[in-house]
Amino acid sequence: MATKKYTVTLPEELAEEIRSEVGPGAFSAYVTRAIERQREHDRLGELVERMEGEYGPVADTDLAAAEAERREIEQWFDERDAGAVSHRSAA
User: Fold this and answer.
1) Global pTM?
2) Helix H segments across 9-57?
3) Which of 40, 24, 32 is nearest to 1 (CA)?
């Protein structure tokens, strides 16, 4: 994929926190990944709106089940990321 340089304004504290975690060489990749995830989130919201328009609102039980699954997935990523950090520290 072709790339192009853009200028964006970020809160300094946030940018420095990310840079210290990922290193200066990975900062752009981190920001790109964050933007891609936001776009996916936006598209998912659009899909939900269309589906609710067609089928009605999501039932509370379905929302609760989805939230439980989201927490499980988030925990999996947290554990994976913690393992990667401890693996890098040991190297």
Assistant:
1) 0.60
2) 12-22, 27-55
3) 32
